[in-house]
Design a protein that fits this description.
With 498 residues, the chain is of the alpha+beta class. Helix content is 20%, strand content 28%. The protein has three domains: 3-147, ph1033 like fold, CATH 3.10.590; 156-353, no CATH class; 356-487, Trna Endonuclease, Chain: A, domain 1 (3-Layer(aba) Sandwich), CATH 3.40.1350. The strands form four sheets. Strands 1, 3, 4, 5, 6, 8 and 9 form a seven-stranded mixed sheet that branches. Strands 10, 11, 12, 13, 14, 15 and 16 form a seven-stranded mixed sheet that branches. A five-stranded mixed sheet has the order 17-18-19-20-21. Helix 10 (439-446) links the parallel strand 19 and strand 20 (452-464). The protein contains ten helices and 21 strands.
């Protein structure tokens, strides 16, 4: 078995990180044989970065690969398909320190590194055979990285439902699902109970066009079984992700609710005086601890709708075509990456989270100080602050900045002198003397002492004449940011009656 180093010059982590490494393509694969191994690398800020390992099962033409994998196969004449059962997700790990130790079975047996901290991509454009000793250097690095990285689920299903806040049955202000397809126009959608805790379990519903769920489009090798386990079910409403079941059991056809659950559902409906509701059969189930329901202010991850490659008009969107080809839509991988990385509030564990938006509180602060403020203005100020923060951190020598604001209780991660830091960015039109912090932010800062940085962009100028424009502002940075009890002023408490 031979080992080769292949360079992906056009690698895009926003679309490919965490996705299955089940193929590679190149015009140089004539020399590859079944059983060979490809070590895939890219450059990140000129540093050699390992993306993963592909054990070659077969080498086919691009046309044949498209028949099997779909249009996601990029333009190259030959495609190496992974040996079935050996596929792994794409990872990222810096191996620049190993670059000088790599050896190749050729006259030019090593990389030229005038600067040990940088690798020139021109040296990587030719497929190069690694010595066995070099592959042995890469193996433990790969295993170590994989152990610390969440793997993308192989089975994924997207389900369109109507919009609600809690999906916990009818209640004042949240009486029934809004939208969600034809079924909800005449009836009250059964997804009204999708995130209701029934004895530690959730039972999910989606209106299916043919009365059943196509398992072969979730997992082509699923066979004729009636249930499929370990499926990530992502619920979408108003073309935004609202929540998910991780590791759910999906039923091909509907299943009757357990008798105690059905009784509780009827009891709640009667108490609320709800009509036009028909007790359906559920499609999904999962333990409560394996699910997330996003607060409404966190429902910002968009999913394309009735456009080419988008969700489509059906209430179900599969990752595989009817032919068995895996879809190439980038939004699917981005959605799964978002779900797996999400670490903010969950209405199932903190029902009060919908009232803890720092955006609403900051808007109130700005309005009380005499400034115009609304969601559009807040978004523009936050984006301006993020840009300013990035620039000032780079100027202070921080590297490898990564925007995590979408799914973590901090806005950036970065590094300096081999140490990782978490950055909280705050932007405001006020003087910034007092800042609103969420519970999640406070908990994270307190649990990562000497690793947190505050970047405050205050006194920002905003003009709005049909279009919001943000300018100026003053930027202050507090490194090794720590919170002291005397500096925190609670604005709400949650009291439990006992």
């Amino acid at each position: 078995m031979r080992h080769f180093l292949q360079y992906w010059r056009t690698y895009d982590p926003t679309k490919e990180l965490g996705t299955p490494l089940d193929f590679a393509a190149s015009a140089q694969f004539k020399r590859l044989k079944s059983g060979d191994t490809l070590w895939i690398v890219a450059l990140s800020k000129h540093k050699l970065t390992l993306l993963g390992r592909l054990v070659v099962g077969s080498v086919v033409t691009r046309k044949d690969a498209i028949r099997k994998l779909g249009d996601r196969v990029y333009d190259a004449p030959l495609v190496a398909l992974a040996e079935p059962g050996t596929e792994q997700d794409i990872i990222e790990t810096d191996i620049q320190d190993l670059a000088s130790q790599l050896r190749f079975n050729s006259v030019h047996d090593r990389l030229l590194l005038p600067d040990a901290t940088r690798t020139d991509g021109k040296q990587l454009q030719t497929l190069r055979e690694l010595t066995l000793e070099s592959s042995d250097l890469l193996e433990p690095v790969l295993k170590s990285t994989q152990q610390g990285q969440t793997q993308h689920p192989r089975r994924v299903l997207f389900a369109r439902v109507g919009w609600m806040t809690y999906y916990a049955g009818p209640q004042t202000g949240d009486e029934k699902p809004v939208g969600g397809g034809e079924n909800n126009k005449k009836n009250i959608g059964h997804e009204i109970f999708n995130f209701t805790n029934f004895g530690g379990r959730l039972y999910g519903f989606v209106s299916t066009p043919k009365g059943h769920i196509s398992f072969e489009r979730i997992e082509p090798t699923s066979g004729q079984q009636d249930r499929l386990d370990d499926v990530l079910v992502v619920f979408v409403a108003r073309q935004r992700i609202v929540g998910w079941y991780l590791g759910a059991t999906v039923h091909r056809t509907g299943v009757k609710f357990p008798s105690p659950v059905a009784t509780e559902i009827r009891k709640r409906l009667k108490k609320a005086g709800t009509k036009n509701f028909k007790l359906e059969k559920y499609r999904f189930e999962t333990p409560v601890e394996d699910a997330v329901l996003l607060p409404t202010h966190e429902r910002a991850h968009e999913v394309p709708g009735a456009v080419k490659g988008g969700f489509g008009q059906s209430n179900l969107c599969y990752v595989y075509e009817s032919s068995g080809k895996r879809k190439s839509a980038a939004w699917m991988s981005e959605a799964v990456t978002y779900v797996l990385n999400y670490g903010k509030a969950n209405l199932l564990t903190n029902p009060n989270a919908d009232n803890e938006s720092d955006e609403a509180a900051t808007m109130s602060q700005e309005q009380a100080a005499g400034f115009q403020s609304d969601p559009a203005i807040r978004k523009a100020v936050e984006q301006f602050a993020m840009t300013e923060a990035h620039a000032v951190l780079v100027g202070k020598g921080y590297k490898n900045l990564r925007d995590t604001s979408k799914f973590k209780p901090y806005d950036y991660t970065c590094e300096r002198d081999g140490k990782k830091f978490f950055v909280e960015v705050k932007g405001t039109q006020t003087s910034g003397k007092t800042l609103v912090l969420t519970r999640g932010e406070v908990e994270h800062i307190n649990s990562h002492t000497e690793q947190c940085i505050l970047v405050l962009v205050h006194s920002v100028n905003v003009s709005s004449n049909g279009r919001v424009k943000v300018s100026k502002g003053k930027t202050e940075v507090r490194e090794l940011w720590a919170l002291h009890p005397a500096d925190l002023n609670p604005i709400q408490y949650l009291w439990t009656f006992s």
